[in-house]
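Notes from hallway chat w/ T.B., transcribed later so I don't forget. T.B. wanted the structure written out for a chain they're using in a teaching module, and asked if we could keep both sequence and C-alpha cells in one place. Agreed to drop them here.
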Amino acid sequence: MSYWLDGFDKTVGVLGLGRSGRAAAALLSRRGFAVVGIDDSPDCRPCPDCARHVLGDTGALDLEDLDGLVLSPGVPPAAQLPSRARELGIPVTGEVELASLFTSATVAAVTGSNGKTTTVEWLGNLLRMAGVNACVAGNMGYPFSRAVLESPDAGVYVLEVSSYQLETVKTFRPRVAAVLNLTPDHLSRHGDMDGYRGAKARIFMNQSPEDFLVLNADDPQLVSLMGLTEGMEMYFSLRRPVETGAFVREESIQLAWAGGVSPLLPVEELSLPGAHNVANALAVVSMARALGVSGPRMLDGLRTFPGVPHRLEEIRRLGGVRYVNDSKSTNIDSLRVALEAEPGPLVLIAGGRPKEGDYGGLREAVRSRARAVLTIGEAAGMLAEAWSDGITVERLPDLDAAVGRARSLARSGDTVLLSPGCASFDQYENFEERGEHFRSLVEALS
C-alpha cells in the first residue's frame, strides 16, 4: 500500500465530498497528490483541497485520468464508478484505510449497531485521565484522516468505525478491536445479516497474535465471530463471569485479567445510568486493560465521563417536565434501549426514514412507557399503525409541530423524549442536525 504514501505526479479522485471525503482530500493534498473532488450533487460545496471538481454528472468523468480513487463511506464499493475504476486497474480504497497508512500510532477501533459513539468517547476520556495521549475520531463526526493531520502525535487513536467504512479496509489493523452488538441495520446495502456481520468482522481480519478482540458475550449474533481472530479474545457480559475481560457480579464491575478477577467499582458509581451504559462501560474497561491501563487508573474515567450529545441527553426541565434529546437513535434497537432507560411516563417523538425491521415489536414497550406518541417524517404513518392500539398516537408534519404538541400534552413528572428510531435523511442532513433542531426548539419553550 506504499502506492498511497507518495503523491508525486499522481492524480487521485475522491468520490463523495462529505466530511470523510474532504478529510481524505486534505490528507492526500498534503502528501503531494493532485485531488479531483467528485460528487453527484451539483450543489456540493467546493472542496478547498481539490485541484478540480466534477459535480453533478459524474458520468462525464474520464477515469483514465486518475491514478487512484478514494471512496467516502456513503459510496458502495459496488457502485458504478468504483467498479469501472477496478476494471481499469485503478487502485480503489476507503478513507479509514487511507488514514491508517499515514500513522504508526496504536489504534483502538469500535464497531457494532449501537453504543459505538458513547464507547469510543468514554474510552478516550478514560485514557486521557489515565495519562494517555488519546485522540477520538472516525464515524462519530471527526474523520480519521482529519485526526491524522491535526493530531499526528497521538499515542492512541480511538476510532468509531461503521460497516460502510469496514467494507473498504484492506490492511487496517487495530491493536484492540471491539464489536459491541449486532441488530438488523443497513441491510439494504449489505443484503442480509450475514453480509452485515461479515462487514463488521473485517475490523479484526488483519489482527496478529499480539492484538486483542473484545466481544459482547451476551449477544447471540456474535457467537459466529468467536474464535476467528488471530488475536487474543476478551469478552464482556452483564449476565455471567468471563475468563478475560469484564463482567458484573453483585452489582459491581469486575475485571478479569491474567487469571485473576478484581472488583473495580459499584455499578451505581458509573457516570452514566442504564443497563446499556453498563455494557458500554464493560467494553471500555476491557479495551482499556488491553491497552495497558490498570484497574485503579480507570476509576476516575469511569466515574466522570459526561456522556455524548444527542444520546439520551437531557436538554432542560420546564414545569416539572424533562426534555431529552436522543436523536442518535436511528434504528429499532436504539429506540428500545431508550424506552428501557428513560423513566416514564413519556411523551415520545419518533419517526424519520425507517430502517429495516419490525417496529411492531416495540408495541408493548411503547405502550408500557408512553402516555402519548407523536410520529413524524416518512415513517409517521407506519409507526402510528404499528403502535396505536391502546395508546394515543398523533401524526405531525415535522419536529416543530411535535415539540409544540408535546409541550401541551406533557404533565409534571413526564419526560418528553425525542428518540426517532429512524434515520434523519428524510428531513435533515444527519442526526446531529436533527438533535440541534430539537435542542433549539426546546430551549425556546416558555
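Follow-up for T.B.: The domain at 9-90 is CATH 3.40.50.720 (Rossmann fold). Might be a good example for the class.
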